Amino acid sequence: KPRVFSGVQPTGNLHLGNYLGAVSRWVPLQDQMETIFCVVDLHAITAGFPDRGELQKATREVTAAYIAAGIDPKKSIIFNQSQVREHAELAWIFNCVARIGWMNRMTQFKDKAGKNRENASLGLLAYPSLMAADILAYKATHVPVGDDQKQHLELTRDIAQKFNNDFADRIKDLGVGVPNPEPSPETPEELFFPITEPMIAGPATRIFSLRDGTKKMSKSDPSDLSRINLTDDADAISKKIRKAKTDPEALPSEVDGLKDRPEAENLVGIYAALAGKTKAEVLTEFGGQQFSAFKPALIDLAVEVLAPMTNEMRRLLADPAEIDAVLKAGAEAASAIAEPILKDVRKVIGFLDVR
Ligand code: AQP
């Protein structure tokens, strides 16, 4: 049965890229598949330990954003990662499956570690191994994320494949595998972990900075004008879009005309994603118009979509009891899935179980 897993780090400044590239795309999946959405707080300490209060606040904020965006705790499991021990345990085992060379090739590690790589935390290097554990502790089959996570998902597939291959005989002998749906001479007859499908599609797989159309919209960008935060009010949204970098040309009538115009392409992509349209449809409407006409339309649309969400987030955050109850129930439901899977993993590895 298809099972979806995805997550966002509670590192503050949740932005339009996180919403359009990830959370908003999860909403319709709830009616099609089993869905598990995590606030990945173990990941949030890889680039340094935030203040205790900040980490707790950001964890509730991401949870509120999920619910406000339409993730329904009755349909989906919502929880924070550190509450389910299996993530950390499986990540450790995957640290021993994955190779250092695989991790060293990750572009996100290179970007985040910067020049002083020797001084980055070991956790930052092992980040993708924990991400693989997040997904595979539930044997999730589908992972909807933004384009920046593509390389990490390929690594998740490599880890699953290596585990399935290295332990093929044990998996078969212990009867803990399922028949390989795509048998080939290179793959075992039975699989323990599924080979996860990335879901990266639509007009908003990568939203760029409002100040620089070649840089991804990011939580850690020092300029607050570079991103629209999900906590921004209508005035802030309006100011940021008015100040967004553009070029002097009118909008083209066809998508081809956006080539080499990263800022224009970004704003058209944002409009398309917010309106649930394609870029081509947006250009049919706005082709030939100047940014002085397009930006006000974009502001109206952004406020229309985001304001109800921001209000609902504020309501939820005013009394954290409701959020904490959702996270508690979610952690229990998530553990109920992950525990038996990890029990089988321990058997496959051969850890002596004396309890
Ligand atoms: N700019 C983006 N466009 C589309 N999708 C994006 N995502 C992040 N930025 C964009 C998607 O959001 C989900 C959660 O990502 P995360 O919590 O790992 O956030 P992040 O990638 O750490 O966010 P930032 O803003 O990029 O933080 P910093 O500044 O720390 O690097 C993922 O599905 C991601 O693809």
The CATH superfamily of the largest domain is identified as HUPs
Bound molecules: adenosine-5'-tetraphosphate
Identify the CATH architecture of the largest domain: 3-Layer(aba) Sandwich
Percent of residues in helices comes to 40-55%
Q: What are the secondary-structure elements, in order, as H or E?
A: EHEHEHHHHHEHHEEEHHHHH
Amino-to-carboxy terminus distance: 32 Å
Total strand count, please? 7
Mean pLDDT: 96
Instruction: Determine Rg (CA atoms, Å).
Output: 22 Å
**Helix count from the secondary structure assignment:** 14
GO molecular function: ATP binding; tryptophan-tRNA ligase activity
Catalytic activity: tRNA(Trp) + L-tryptophan + ATP = L-tryptophyl-tRNA(Trp) + AMP + diphosphate + H(+)
GO biological process, one term: tryptophanyl-tRNA aminoacylation
Motif ('HIGH' region): 10-18
What does this entry look like structurally?
This is Tryptophan--tRNA ligase. It is an enzyme of class 6 (ligase). Belongs to the class-I aminoacyl-tRNA synthetase family. The chain has 355 residues and is mainly alpha-helical. The protein folds into two domains: 3-200 and 321-349, Rossmann fold (3-Layer(aba) Sandwich); 224-317, Tyrosyl-Transfer RNA Synthetase (Orthogonal Bundle). 51% of the residues lie in helices and 8% in strands. It is built from 14 helices and seven strands. The protein has helices spanning 16-26, 52-69, 86-97, 100-104, 107-113, 122-125, 127-136, 150-166, 168-174, 234-243, 262-275, 279-286, 291-318, 321-349, and strands spanning 3-8, 34-39, 76-80, 142-144, 178-179, 190-191, 197-199. It has a three-stranded parallel sheet with strand order 1-2-3. A two-stranded parallel ribbon has the order 4-7. A two-stranded antiparallel sheet has the order 5-6. Strand 2, helix 2 (52-69) and strand 3 (76-80) form a beta-alpha-beta unit. The longest helix is centred in the last third of the chain and has 29 residues, at 321-349. It is globular, with a radius of gyration of 22 Å. It starts with a strand and ends in a 6-residue tail after the last helix. The mean pLDDT is 96. The chain binds adenosine-5'-tetraphosphate. Adenosine-5'-tetraphosphate (AQP) binds at residues 8-9, 11, 17-18, 21-22, 145-146, 148-149, 204, 206-207, 216-220. Adenosine-5'-tetraphosphate is lined by residues 8-9, 11, 17-18, 21-22, 145-146, 148-149, 204, 206-207, 216-220.
